[in-house]
């Protein structure tokens, strides 16, 4: 990264398996909407807020903004036209694989105005290209790749603001996560065993290389929770001394707990007063725990320790997909989302376009997505989004840790042009599924494989569990 221009012919060959071509007008609207959402993530922040401390889980916010523009610059304009970068020294500033994480704090980054100007010039150049011609499947794929990349960084901006204790981002149309009264959703769903096609099929409108391709695996019968573990569930573990009992932790998990000095989830603290209890930090304010909302900002080690305490276990990736995506009682038919193939807020007939287009999810019954509400919902909310198996919120609310390490599927090949998306991360990281309340709808579907190191507790991650038979 960046690829060497000109690459239009190479792109056509490498992306020959892509089959979805979307109208230029739909893609242009999506580019404009994604640009506006990116700007909204920092619209209220003063220049001093953009200078953040060096931490492993953060990026300088001005660097993050410039990197979003750089991705479009390289992987759309550069790949298709061999166009020169819209900022002459962008590759020396924003190449995420050419510039080590800690070195980003020492860069001579452009100021806020110049960074926003770079974003605007790239958006205008991309829009100008779409105004001149209708895209074919290869070009459509590159636009979708850049759009989903923007979606990932919008979510990252949101949880970085949480990490820094900044206010919730002023996203268009977003409302506070008010109490719904939906409550808890206890109990398990029994899932038949048998063959399951794990991974994406070739008919999917967009996939990453690590999802390819669907391959047969054998899944034993299992029982999985109808909903994620709640804050009340997790508080019981903390109050029972779960963070102090090494028998509940893996060796690596216990080492992390000691090194971090963790005695509870990262944003929790004891409430003052005789009643005790717990508070959690939600962006820049402290709130009492919401007992029926999913626990969030817990890492894989913490999820595993809770499971051992509760005599439960995390699902494998294949089990999670089987519970979320099976459209009926066999593996012969699978859905892109638990409720079917339609994206949230759209009709089934618009599935392909809604995955790719502006796609701002309307507040509704299907899922907690797209920061329509600035926080999690009760785990019993969104009943209309249940999977055919009877599991709730397998899309949205919180990303869900699985037991599975992040490895390639059989026959994996690196996708052109974003060769670094998956391959550098195989092995140590763990697979998360489903998406969070801050995830954009384009990035929320059942074959999506998110992946983070097991110690990461800054992302919007929780977990659901399986019974140990």
Quick recap:
With 469 residues, this protein is α+β, with helices and mostly antiparallel strands. It has helices spanning 8-14, 24-40, 47-50, 61-81, 90-94, 112-132, 137-164, 231-239, 251-260, 300-310, 317-325, 351-356; strands at 188-191, 194-198, 215-219, 222-225, 268-270, 278-282, 285-288, 312-313, 399-405, 430-433, 450-452, 461-462, 466-467.
Task: Tell me about this structure.
The chain is built from twelve helices and 13 strands. By secondary structure, it is an alpha+beta fold. It folds into two domains: 157 residues, Four Helix Bundle (Hemerythrin (Met), subunit A), CATH 1.20.120.450; 296 residues, paralog of FGE (formylglycine-generating enzyme). The strands form five sheets. The protein has a four-stranded mixed sheet with strand order 11-10-9-12. The longest helix is centred in the N-terminal third of the chain and has 28 residues. It is globular, with a radius of gyration of 22 Å.
CATH topology category name of the largest domain: paralog of FGE (formylglycine-generating enzyme)
Largest sheet: 4 strands, mixed
Question: Which residues sit in consecutive blocks of at least 5 with pLDDT less than 50?
Answer: 1-5, 346-353, 357-363
Structural class: alpha+beta
Mean of the pLDDT scores?
91
For the CA atoms, what is the radius of gyration? 22 Å
Q: What is the terminal-to-terminal distance?
A: 48 Å
Strands, count? 13
- Approximate strand percentage: 5-15%
Could you say what the CATH architecture of the largest domain is?
Answer: Alpha-Beta Complex
The CATH superfamily title of the largest domain: paralog of FGE (formylglycine-generating enzyme)
Helix content: 25-40%
Order of helices and strands: HHHHHHHEEEEHHEEEHEHHEEEEE
């Amino acid at each position: 990264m960046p690829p060497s221009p000109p690459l239009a012919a190479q792109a056509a060959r490498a992306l020959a398996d892509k089959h979805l071509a979307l109208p230029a007008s739909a893609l242009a609207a999506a580019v404009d909407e994604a640009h506006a959402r990116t700007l909204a993530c920092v619209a209220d922040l003063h220049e001093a807020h953009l200078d953040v401390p060096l931490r492993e889980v953060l990026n300088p916010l001005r660097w993050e903004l410039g990197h979003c523009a750089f991705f479009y610059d390289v992987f759309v304009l550069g790949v298709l036209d061999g166009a020169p970068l819209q900022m002459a020294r962008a590759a020396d500033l924003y190449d995420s694989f050419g510039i080590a994480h800690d070195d980003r704090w020492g860069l001579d980054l452009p100021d806020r105005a110049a960074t926003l100007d770079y974003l605007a010039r790239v958006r205008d150049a991309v829009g100008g290209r779409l105004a001149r011609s209708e895209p074919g499947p290869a070009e459509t794929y590159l636009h979708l790749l850049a759009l989903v990349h923007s979606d990932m960084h919008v979510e990252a901006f949101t949880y970085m603001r949480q990490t820094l204790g900044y206010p919730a981002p002023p996203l268009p149309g977003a409302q506070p996560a008010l109490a719904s009264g939906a409550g808890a959703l206890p109990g398990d769903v029994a899932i038949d065993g048998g063959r399951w096609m794990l991974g994406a099929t070739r008919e999917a409108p967009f996939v990453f290389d690590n999802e390819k391709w669907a391959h047969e695996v054998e899944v034993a019968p299992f029982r999985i929770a109808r909903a994620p573990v709640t804050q009340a569930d997790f508080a019981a573990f903390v109050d029972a001394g779960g963070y102090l009992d090494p028998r509940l932790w893996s060796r690596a998990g216990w080492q992390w707990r000691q090194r971090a000095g963790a005695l509870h989830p990262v944003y929790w603290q004891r409430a003052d007063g005789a009643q005790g209890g717990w508070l959690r930090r939600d962006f820049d304010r402290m709130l009492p725990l919401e007992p029926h909302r999913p626990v969030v900002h817990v890492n894989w080690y913490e999820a595993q320790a809770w499971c051992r305490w509760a005599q439960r276990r995390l699902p494998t990736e294949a089990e999670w997909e089987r519970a979320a995506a099976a459209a009926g009682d066999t593996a012969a038919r699978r859905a892109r989302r638990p409720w079917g193939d339609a994206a949230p807020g759209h009709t089934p007939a618009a599935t392909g376009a809604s995955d790719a287009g502006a796609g701002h999810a309307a507040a509704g019954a299907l899922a907690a997505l797209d920061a329509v509400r600035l926080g999690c919902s009760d785990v019993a909310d969104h009943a209309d989004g249940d999977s055919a198996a009877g599991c709730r919120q397998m899309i949205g609310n919180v990303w869900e840790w699985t037991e599975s390490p992040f490895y390639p599927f059989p026959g994996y090949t690196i996708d052109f042009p974003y060769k670094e998306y998956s391959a550098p991360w195989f092995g140590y990281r763990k697979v998360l599924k489903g998406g969070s309340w801050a995830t954009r709808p384009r990035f929320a579907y059942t074959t999506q494989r998110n992946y983070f190191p097991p110690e990461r507790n800054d992302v919007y991650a929780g977990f659901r569990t399986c019974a140990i038979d």
